[in-house]
Design a protein that fits this description.
disordered N terminus; 5 helices; two-stranded antiparallel sheet; single chain; 2 strands; mainly alpha; 148 residues
Length: 148
């Protein structure tokens, strides 16, 4: 993973550290040996190959989140992909189960992922103009107008 040198605040670090175990749980839910976990979300049982691929990617993102939280340095590309992926998953989960009325567990999971997608997106937007290693609130880092 490429270290972009973007410093994370304490809140974002804790959030990313919490995403590691959240993604670990998601990876277990999608692993083929646990069909009851998927059924709780109202999801079908596809071919095990695709479940393993999905579980592996969810686990990989969990490791990437935990690493960023642990080191305090953000990888903007990983966070951008995560924002997109979590947002798409939330929308697909609710829309895919909407015909039968989404199970409560699916709504909770979708709300959590959608919330994280928004937080990651807002963090990316707010930090876009900040130079490397700039402190939040420092002049000229994109956090507000600079008067010259």
């Amino acid at each position: 993973m490429i270290d972009t040198g973007r410093e994370l605040g304490r809140g974002m670090r804790w959030l990313l550290l919490a995403c590691g175990p959240m993604n670990a749980a998601g990876a277990v839910c999608f692993a083929p040996p646990f069909p009851h976990a998927r059924r709780g979300f109202g999801l079908p049982d596809p071919d095990p190959f695709y479940l393993w691929v999905l579980a592996a990617w969810i686990a990989a993102f969990g490791v990437a989140f935990a690493r960023q939280g642990w080191t305090g340095r953000a990888d903007r590309a990983v966070l951008a992909l995560a924002a997109w992926g979590k947002g798409v998953f939330a929308v697909l989960l609710v829309s895919g189960t909407a015909a039968a009325g989404p199970p409560r567990l699916a709504v909770v999971a979708a709300a959590a992922d959608l919330s994280l997608a928004v937080v990651f997106g807002v963090w990316l937007w707010r930090s876009a103009g900040r130079p490397r290693h700039a402190k939040p609130g420092a002049a000229g880092n994109g956090s507000g107008p600079v008067v010259s």
